[in-house]
Design a protein that fits this description.
Blueprint (H helix, E strand, L loop, with lengths): L6 E6 L5 H15 L4 E7 H6 L1 H7 L2 E5 L6 H17 L3 E5 L6 H9 L3 E7 L5 H4 L4 E5 L11 H43 L11 H9 L9 E2 H10 L9 H6 L5 E4 L4 E4 L6
Parallel strand pairs: 1-2, 1-4, 2-3, 4-5, 5-6
Antiparallel strand pairs: 7-9, 8-9
Length: 271
């Protein structure tokens, strides 16, 4: 009986489309029968947009909160080396069309892994394909409605325009009266109450942190060490990452209190 190979699937979710990710997971399952590690690296906005897809595919999103150029690629590369040392996979499947991963592919191969690439057709260059042991290009399928011809667009535009002109001339007196009535009501309402400031929305980065450490939602002080452990467990902070540096970027929503070190979500008062 052939032993099952240990397979690690790492996805550059900022680089390929959702349907290519879905195809890549299915192709890898068909090829090896099992995927032991499934991770997708992306920014916070992408993680929110593809949350349902990641759940469906049992892929763990690794959210990158840094805003620097290629920061997601760097996070993937660092994590890949750590995982290969810790998990000892036989095969690493890297889903990306980015040629910048060539040094990573060479390093993983030196560690004894077979490295297979999956990219998106039309985005992958020849120099990218050559560095992998095998490479598959998957087509991006997107259903787009057929566009109207220029002549049809003009006809459609003219008909509503004519109707709008007639409607305006017929309803002008009624609109004028209604506007005066609404203005009087608005003036009375404004005198009766003071306008309330709109609540500040929670940023996507803050929402991920609150999901990982729900104790922060109370607005009370929480030990910084407890929050850092929760962020590492959720994959939002690396083992060597500094929670203080992370919260320095989110001072509008979190306050760091020292002696002892604690953290407070300041958005709780607005929610």
């Amino acid at each position: 009986m052939t032993p099952t190979l240990r397979v690690m699937l790492l996805i550059d979710a900022d680089n390929v489309s959702a349907d290519v990710i879905e195809q890549a997971v299915q192709r890898t399952m068909d090829e090896y029968g099992a995927i032991h590690v499934r991770r997708a690296y992306c920014n916070a906005e992408m993680a929110v947009n593809r949350q349902a897809l990641f759940k469906q595919l049992s892929v763990r999103p690794m959210v990158n909160l840094s805003a620097g150029k290629n920061s997601t690629d760097i996070a993937l590369a660092v994590d890949a080396i750590d995982l290969v040392i810790a998990e000892r996979p036989d095969v690493v499947v890297l889903v990306s069309s980015d040629s910048d991963f060539a040094p990573l592919v060479s390093r993983l191969r030196e560690k004894g892994c077979r490295v297979c690439g999956i990219g998106q057709q039309g985005k992958t260059g020849d120099e990218t394909v050559g560095v992998y042991d095998t490479f598959i290009d998957l087509a991006h399928h997107s259903a787009k409605p057929a566009g109207r011809t220029a002549a049809a667009k003009k006809v459609v535009a003219k008909v509503p325009a004519a109707k709008t002109a007639r409607a305006k001339s017929a309803t002008a007196p009624a609109k004028k009266a209604a506007t005066k009535t609404a203005a009087r009501k608005t003036t009375r309402a404004s005198a009766e109450r003071q306008p309330q400031p709109a609540p500040q929305p929670v940023s996507e980065a803050a929402e991920f942190i609150l999901q990982a450490a729900p104790a922060l939602r109370s607005g009370k002080d929480v030990p910084l060490n407890d929050v850092a452990k929760a962020l590492r467990t959720a994959g939002l902070l690396s083992k060597s990452g500094s929670s203080l540096k992370l919260f320095d970027k989110l001072t509008a929503e979190f306050a760091v209190l020292q002696h002892p070190d604690r953290i407070r979500w300041t958005g709780a008062s607005a929610s």
